[in-house]
Amino acid sequence: MFTGIVEHVAPILAIEPRGAAYRFRLDLGPVAEGLEIGDSVACDGACLTVVTLEGQIAEFDVIRETVERTAFAQLQVGGGINVERPMRADGRFHGHLVSGHVDGTGAIVVKREEDGQTWLTVEIAPELAAFCVEKGSITLSGVSLTLTAVEGSRVSVALIPHTLEVTTLGQRREGELLNIEVDQLAKLVHRLISPYLPQGAPGLDLDALKRAGWGQQEG
Questions:
Q1: Which end of the chain is more exposed for a tag (fewer CB within 10 A), N or C?
Q2: Can you tell me the distance from the alpha carbon of 164 to that of 208, in angstroms, rounded to the nearest whole number?
Q3: Nearest-5° Cα angle at 65, 188 to 127
Q4: Closest CA to 26 of 74, 67, 81, 86
Q5: Measuring CA to CA, which residue among 44, 4, 38 is closest to residue 26?
Q6: Kind and range of the H or E run holding 193
């Protein structure tokens, strides 16, 4: 489990094809401290397992399922990747619950600077947008962010200069893909409520919940 607070942008030293899979070699820098082979690291929001470790240099195997579900195919040697170690049970909780299981990808459709902040709008799959609400949480390539707007399948966030400096989001351009993980709690609530919704209901909204009997007062 992670929090979406990026600890380091790790330089990509090598991407080695292995059939339909890949092996990534990353310079984890300070994130390598305390790591052992078999430990998990969030890489651009995807939970990967350390398979080799020499000092600060770690390798990760990336299987076909992960490649197909993420934006890893656009990564290049010499670029960077957001990394985070798993959260500690006795530490502060700064972001939100992030599982490291990427739900899909989204394309940056708008990136503009305005009044000391950068607005980022991303087009995501409609089935993922259903779990997004204004002021809710979303993870973009491993970065925990607050949604400022949700319009159909387009979601927007506002990035402060610090976030642009300490993550790869500062280098991302319009048209590029980001890894998307929607809020785990939203998915859980949807899973629990879905069996009680009328069959074929278009989605979760206040009217749908009322029709299903939620929020009705007895008597």
A1: C
A2: 39
A3: 40
A4: 81
A5: 44
A6: helix 184-193
Domains in the chain: ranges and CATH? 8-84 (2.40.30.20), 104-186 (2.40.30.20)
Taking alpha carbons only, the member of 58, 48, 140 closest to residue 103 is 140
The rounded distance, in Å, linking the Cα atoms of 124 and 179 is 10
C-alpha dihedral over 158, 134, 191, 62, to 10 degrees? -10
From residue 47, give the alpha-carbon distance in Å to each of 41, 44, 60, 160. 6, 9, 10, 25
The pTM (predicted TM-score) of the whole model is: 0.86
pLDDT per residue, tens digit, the chain (219 aa), is 899 999 999 999 999 999 889 999 999 999 999 999 999 999 999 999 999 999 999 999 999 999 999 999 999 999 999 999 998 777 777 778 888 999 999 999 999 998 889 999 999 999 999 999 999 999 999 999 999 999 999 999 999 999 999 999 999 999 999 999 998 888 888 778 777 766 655 555 556 666 666 655 554
Q: Which two tokens stand for residue 141?
A: 């390539």
d(CA 16, CA 100): 22
